[in-house]
Write a structure and sequence with these properties.
Blueprint: H1 2-22, E1 26-32, H2 40-50, E2 54-58, H3 66-74, E3 78-81, E4 84-87, H4 88-94, E5 97-101, H5 104-110, H6 116-138, E6 144-148, H7 159-178, E7 182-184, H8 186-192, H9 204-221
Parallel strand pairs: 1-2, 1-5, 5-6, 6-7
Antiparallel strand pairs: 3-4
Helix pairs in contact: 2-9, 3-6, 6-7
């Protein structure tokens, strides 16, 4: 009788754990350098809501440069929105999925399609800031992290610009991998699908590509 009772306790214990994991709700946080009226964040939010997987959603922490975001984290920036206070360190600690999209506007501002030496110089400075940012984020965030890479903000493509963005991708990919983060190569997404645009923001096709990559993770882990 004790063995039967033990079996049922184990069985229902496993079922309870599995059922809770299988129906896990997601605390989704996104750091951005701009706010698009409709982008991958909104697509992911709609996906999670549709599947009853959304616990909390926050894309309020916007900063136009990497150093500004580092400062926000160190100072525990607080935003009051709809009578609720959001603390950046608390949101990092409680995030299940964190998406980081910062640096593209910064790079676009200084990018010169005719002066690659200047681009390398500026990116090397940016890379040092990215390293510091990742260090700060790793102090608090323990969930799944996605870092969105950079892409050519102009229509001008040649072998040297390709080489430049290839090197950026390689360095950022290695940095994220060494810090147990996911890297999404936006340059390859845009270049590979002919999404050439003078605008520095992704178009709908690019946003869907990002959404699809993150959705694969969500399907496997929620």
């Amino acid at each position: 009788m004790k063995k039967i009772l033990y079996f049922f306790l184990v069985f229902f214990g496993i079922f309870f754990v599995y059922n809770n994991f299988d129906n896990k709700s997601i605390n989704y946080v996104s750091f951005n350098d701009t706010l698009n009226c409709y982008n991958y964040n909104q697509m992911i939010k709609e996906y999670l809501e549709k599947n009853n997987k959304l616990l909390n959603f926050n894309d309020l922490f916007i900063n136009k440069n990497i150093r500004g975001l580092i400062k926000d984290i160190r100072n525990n920036r607080t935003i009051r929105y709809k009578n609720r206070d959001y603390y950046i360190k608390k949101d990092l600690r409680e995030s299940d999925v964190l998406v980081i999209s910062i640096g593209e506007e910064e790079l676009s501002k200084y990018y010169d399609k005719y002066d690659l030496n200047n681009n390398y110089y500026f990116f090397n400075k940016m890379y040092n800031d990215v390293e510091l940012l990742i260090k700060e984020i790793n102090k608090y965030a323990k969930g799944e992290i996605f870092f969105l890479g950079y892409y050519n903000p102009t229509n001008y493509y040649d072998s040297k610009s390709d080489e430049f963005f290839f090197e950026i991708d390689s360095k950022l990919n290695n940095l994220m991998r060494n810090n147990n983060m996911n890297y999404i190569s936006l340059y390859e997404i845009i270049k590979g699908n002919n999404y050439k645009s003078d605008e520095i923001h992704l178009n709908n096709a690019g946003n869907r590509e990002i959404m699809n990559i993150i959705e694969v993770y969500l399907r496997k882990n929620t």
